[in-house]
Q: What sequence folds into this?
């Protein structure tokens, strides 16, 4: 049974309200029974929730439908409409003094994190932790702490990220999946610090703990992260195998968004192997998804990668267009490291194209951008690369 957009006056107020409650219960039962079928009916589910969240008597089935459907729909990329419904659900749960507020904050915080909206993610997850204290419930506390660890890592706050991981690992009766995610956060921090063996060790520990859960989605995430560590440690065949398995797992999970991160990363393997045409095919497959789903940071990265691939083909004008697109997105997101990284790649392209005066300007801009960032292995390495390029320009 699907609820059409009726005018309550046509049915009578009481009949309409009963219809809203019945409809919410119908979709809740359906998503528990056959989630893949219900995903094809997403617009009708969204309509049901718009009505259900507005009625006090429909709160419980609407709440349960939101919580059950949320992980599925986030992985489908329906983030814009779903964000509004999650915010409304959190407001309602707060009004109802319902501890579901905790898990709803976790869901919205996860959505913000995936979109790269880190301050909003942090605020939402902190609200979830405060609700844990308010309701004296700790069920979702490890997941909230792990998600905060991911946000801190993305914000470059590595010690804070590790503190969150240690908080999780120090909890009694920890589920294997919660422990796995703490190792994942630790692996990502080690990766950022260019500690490749440590990163790979943490990712392997996470995989060992996640695999018995048979959660294709979580396994795919760790395989993708492990692949990046293999790639940066120059183990290209292992990186390719990890990304290819990640893609299969994401597809098995029905993920239509993060799947494309693995596809982009597979392109990076081909880019490193200088198989530029193959890399471009992977990037072009990922590009529309990042545009459509509002994944700004990934969009900036894939534009940058396309610029490098076309630079490898000496197609300077196309490469320059993609570098410029990446710079625009990174600037709008306020991502200084990504901005500096793309400026460096753009400068390298200009040197190859023998546009040396412009290359110097671009590289000086990269150095200026890096000057405001804190010292870290990644920032220091990039600063050294830019300074070396500028020094080489001086002797030409």
A:
């Amino acid at each position: 049974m699907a609820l059409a957009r009726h005018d309550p006056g046509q049915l009578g107020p009481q009949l309409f309200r009963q219809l809203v409650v019945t409809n919410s219960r119908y979709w809740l039962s359906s998503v528990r029974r056959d989630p893949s079928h219900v995903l094809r009916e997403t617009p009708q589910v969204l309509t049901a929730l718009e009505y259900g969240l507005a009625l006090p008597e429909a709160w419980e089935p609407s709440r349960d439908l939101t919580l059950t459907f949320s992980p599925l729909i986030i992985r489908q990329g329906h983030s814009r409409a779903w964000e509004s419904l999650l915010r409304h659900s959190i407001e309602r749960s707060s009004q109802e003094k319902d501890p579901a507020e905790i898990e709803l904050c976790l869901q919205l915080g996860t959505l913000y994190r995936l979109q790269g909206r880190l301050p909003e993610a942090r605020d939402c997850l902190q609200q979830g932790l405060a609700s844990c204290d308010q309701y004296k419930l700790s069920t979702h506390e490890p997941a909230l702490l792990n998600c905060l660890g991911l946000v801190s890592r993305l914000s470059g706050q590595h010690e804070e990220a590790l503190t969150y991981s240690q908080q999780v690992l120090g909890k009694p009766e920890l589920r294997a999946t919660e422990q796995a995610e703490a190792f994942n956060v630790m692996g990502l921090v080690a990766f950022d610090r260019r500690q490749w063996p440590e990163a790979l060790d943490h990712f392997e520990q996470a995989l060992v703990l996640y695999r018995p859960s048979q959660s294709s989605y979580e396994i795919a995430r760790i395989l993708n992260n492990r692949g990046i560590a293999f790639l940066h440690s120059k183990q290209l065949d292992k990186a390719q195998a990890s990304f290819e398995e990640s893609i299969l797992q994401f597809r098995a999970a029905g993920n239509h968004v993060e799947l494309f991160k693995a596809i982009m990363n597979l392109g990076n393997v081909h880019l490193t192997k200088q198989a530029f045409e193959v890399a471009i095919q992977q990037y072009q497959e990922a590009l529309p998804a990042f545009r459509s789903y509002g994944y700004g940071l990934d969009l900036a990265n894939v534009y940058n990668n396309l610029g490098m691939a076309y630079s490898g083909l000496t197609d300077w004008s196309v490469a320059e267009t993609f570098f410029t697109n990446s710079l625009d997105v990174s600037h709008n997101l306020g991502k200084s490291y990504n901005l500096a990284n793309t400026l460096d790649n753009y400068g390298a392209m200009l040197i190859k194209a023998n546009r040396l005066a412009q290359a110097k300007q671009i590289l000086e801009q990269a150095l200026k951008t890096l000057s405001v960032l804190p010292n870290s292995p990644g920032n220091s390495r990039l600063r050294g690369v830019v300074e070396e390029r500028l020094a080489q320009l001086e002797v030409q």
Confidence is low (pLDDT under 50) at residues 4-11. The radius of gyration is 23 Å. Residues 13-33 form the longest helix (21 residues). DSSP finds 21 helices and no strands in the chain.
